[in-house]
């Protein structure tokens, strides 16, 4: 009887302790690997772990999960570039570019980016680890990153982390610590951000310079989200969508034959010109537009979008993207098209309606990314934890006040003659469209005095253009070229 009671007590103790899932605040796991990139085989080291975020009193308030890749046997580490990589959301883990774009391992997917089984990963023969070391950083509540309770068990105030400027401030502090710990102050430094990560790294460019005294060689914007356009609405925001409509309609063969017979890159300049020079002025007139002009604009919008003149007029020439995703193929196949990548197709419960039931592309991506990243971290990187890997973590409410990141980037560039900017966008991205990204690039420096330090690259895919194998190759090559172009090469930082 005593033995039975003791067993029950022991079981209860273990059950209670097993329910406690905690993150090691400061730890590193080192693993060694090999890879062949562009025909050259070499070894590299992966450092996977956590590094704290401290408050003003030096107490840890959060710990960020990261993976840091360095090529082995590098004679001059000081001249080797360091790339600091973020995804977006806000609330997204740094998983997408990690195991599908620049990192040494990529998903098992087909050449167009669709899931295949068995799930998992394979070597990335196009990774930029041949020319740069890379650290993938997960902001608070994404991946395995978490807030840390104080000695009394109380969690820190969420407002320390969850906002445009709050996010930038604590991440800049974290980057400073990381660079110091890993002895990378001498290295040329780059920050790359995808989607909301574009907002993040634009703001970080100035925060790092002004408050961490860390100067960058490059800022890389992958399908960047510019909320100065996305959230404000109005004629400019609406008109900038038209070239994306053209690209998606071209892909699904919904354009008039004279346009459909041309290559995509021959069609898009027409739509871009119409959007800037005709559609914005027309939308600006609102309900006071001349009726003949209204009908003429609807006719041309129909030509460049694949939608009927009727539905365009019903929307007063201002067609929401979510309606476009639902409408484009409604009468052809009854399918919806993807938001982040409009090559993807979905089926709704009913064909009627104004927006899709779900994002066809995102469900496809989660299908392949989630098992791959969990398997990779545990089995190859040897980081083992019972914590859930948050593909998307709880970061709401998010403080969007005082969004000045576009001007932050301009000021950082003005202060730092070394700083260059590369934008990479997919033509079929309907969330952060390629033409919106071009517009952002044009608006950063209204003077035009620094325009030779901006580069734009477009790809025949969507938000994560690198999922398409052809674009995985070209996008990584574009990164190599950008790193080469933005290298100081011994030149002084002066005008």
From TrEMBL:
Protein name listed in UniProt: S10 family peptidase
Organism encoding this protein: Geojedonia litorea
InterPro entries cross-referenced by the UniProt entry: AB_hydrolase_fold (IPR029058), Peptidase_S10 (IPR001563), Ser_caboxypep_ser_AS (IPR018202)
PROSITE patterns according to UniProt: CARBOXYPEPT_SER_SER
Coiled-coil positions: none
Keyword terms, alphabetized: Carboxypeptidase, Glycoprotein, Hydrolase, Protease, Signal
SUPFAM superfamilies assigned: alpha/beta-Hydrolases
Signal peptide residues on this chain, from the entry's feature table: 1-18
One Pfam family this sequence matches: Peptidase_S10
Domain of life: Bacteria
């Amino acid at each position: 009887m005593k033995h039975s009671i003791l067993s029950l007590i022991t079981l209860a103790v273990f059950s209670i302790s097993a329910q406690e899932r905690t993150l090691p605040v400061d730890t590193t796991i080192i693993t060694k690997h090999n890879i062949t990139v562009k025909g050259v085989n070499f070894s590299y080291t992966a450092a996977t772990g956590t590094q704290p975020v401290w408050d003003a009193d030096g107490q840890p308030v959060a710990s960020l999960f990261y993976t840091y890749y360095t090529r082995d046997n590098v004679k001059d580490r000081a001249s080797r570039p360091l790339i600091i990589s973020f995804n977006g959301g806000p609330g997204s883990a740094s998983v997408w570019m990690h195991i599908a774009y620049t990192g040494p391992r990529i998903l098992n997917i087909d050449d167009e980016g669709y899931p295949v089984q068995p799930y998992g990963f394979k070597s990335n023969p196009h990774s930029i680890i041949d020319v740069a070391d890379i650290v993938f950083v997960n902001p608070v509540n994404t991946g395995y990153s978490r807030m840390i309770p104080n000695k009394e068990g109380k969690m820190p105030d969420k407002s320390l982390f969850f906002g445009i400027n709050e996010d930038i401030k604590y991440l800049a502090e974290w980057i400073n610590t990381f660079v110091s710990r890993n002895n990378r102050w001498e290295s040329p430094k780059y920050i790359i951000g995808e989607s909301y990560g574009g907002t993040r790294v634009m703001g970080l460019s100035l925060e790092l310079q002004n408050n961490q005294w860390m100067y960058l060689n490059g800022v890389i914007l992958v399908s960047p989200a510019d909320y100065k356009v996305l959230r404000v609405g109005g004629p400019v925001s609406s008109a900038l969508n038209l070239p994306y409509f053209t690209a998606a309609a071209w892909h699904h063969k919904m354009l008039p034959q004279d346009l459909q017979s041309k290559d995509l890159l021959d069609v898009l300049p027409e739509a871009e010109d119409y959007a800037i020079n005709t559609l914005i002025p027309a939308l600006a007139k609102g309900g006071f537009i001349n009726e003949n002009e209204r009908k003429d604009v609807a006719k041309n919008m129909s030509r460049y979008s694949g939608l009927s003149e009727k539905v365009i007029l019903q929307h007063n020439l201002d067609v929401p993207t979510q309606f476009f995703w639902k409408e484009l193929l409604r009468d052809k196949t009854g399918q919806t098209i993807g938001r982040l990548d409009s090559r993807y197709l979905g089926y709704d419960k009913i064909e009627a309606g104004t927006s899709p039931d779900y994002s066809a592309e995102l469900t496809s991506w989660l299908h392949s990314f989630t098992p791959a990243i969990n398997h990779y971290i545990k089995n190859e990187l040897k980081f083992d934890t019972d914590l859930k890997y948050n593909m998307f973590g709880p970061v709401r409410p998010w403080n969007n006040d005082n969004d000045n990141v576009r001007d932050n980037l301009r000021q950082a560039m003005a202060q730092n003659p070394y700083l260059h900017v590369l934008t990479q966008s997919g033509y079929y991205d309907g969330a952060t469209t390629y033409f919106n990204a071009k517009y952002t690039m044009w608006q950063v420096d209204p003077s035009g005095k620094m325009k030779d330090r901006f580069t734009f690259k477009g790809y025949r895919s969507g938000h994560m253009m690198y999922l398409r194998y052809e674009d995985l190759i070209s996008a990584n090559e574009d990164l190599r070229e950008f790193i080469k172009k933005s290298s100081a090469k011994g030149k002084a930082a002066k005008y």
